[in-house]
Amino acid sequence: MLETKRLILRQWQDSDFQAFSEINADPDVMAFYPSIMSEAESNKMAAKLQGLIDEWSWGFWAVELKQENEFIGFVGLHRPSHDLPCTPCVEIGWRLSKKHWGKGYATEAAKESLRFAFEYLALNEVYSFASVLNDKSWAVMERLNMENTGQNFEHPIIPEGHALREHVLYKITKEQWK
User: Fold this and answer.
1) CA quadruple 147, 150, 151, 152: dihedral positive or negative?
2) CA dihedral 93, 96, 101, 102 (to 10 degrees)
3) What's the pLDDT score for residue 22?
4) 3-state SS, residue 154
5) Strand runs (DSSP E) across 14-117, as ranges?
6) Contact predicate 84/153, CB 8 Å
7) CA–CA gap between residue 130 and residue 94 (Å, rounded)
8) Which tens digit of pLDDT belongs to each residue from 69-88?
9) Is the pTM of this model over 0.90?
10) pLDDT for the residue 97
11) CA 54 from chain center: how many Å?
C-alpha cells in the first residue's frame, strides 16, 4: 500500500469491482479506448490487476480517497505484454472516474508510483503512452516531467485504420525524476 496526502494506492478489493465497471462503462472515460467495457470485461480486468499485484506486490493499484474511503479508479505501474517500441519495460498509467477528473489525483498518485518505481523497484526508466488524441493523458505525463520520445507507434491491440491506433510514447529516467 502507498499513500499520498489525499490518496491510498492499494490492492484491489472485490467491493471495487462494481465502481470500476461503472468507470469502464462511461463513454467519456473510455473515449480514447476502442469501446466501453461490459461488466464481465471490467470484472475480468480488475481480477487480472488484482492477481498481478498478488504476484509482483505492485501494479495498477486501486486508488481510494482517504477522507471518503471511496474507490476512484486505478493508477500505477504495469509490464506491457504487447510488442511496443519500449518493451520490455514498465509503464505508468491511470484511469479515474470522470467525477474525479481535474483535481490532480492522477498526477498525485502517479508521482507516488514513480517514487516506488525508482526507489523500491530500482528501475532506471518508466514509460507511458496514450493515443495521440488523448491530450488529457499527455498533460499528466508532462506534469510528471516525462518527455515525449518522439517515437509515436501504432498500438497493436487497436485495429488498423482506427483513429486511436497512433500513440505517443513518453519516458522518464531515474535521473530526470531526481
Assistant:
1) positive
2) -30
3) 98
4) strand
5) 60-65, 70-78, 91-96
6) yes
7) 11
8) 999 999 999 999 989 999 99
9) yes
10) 98
11) 18
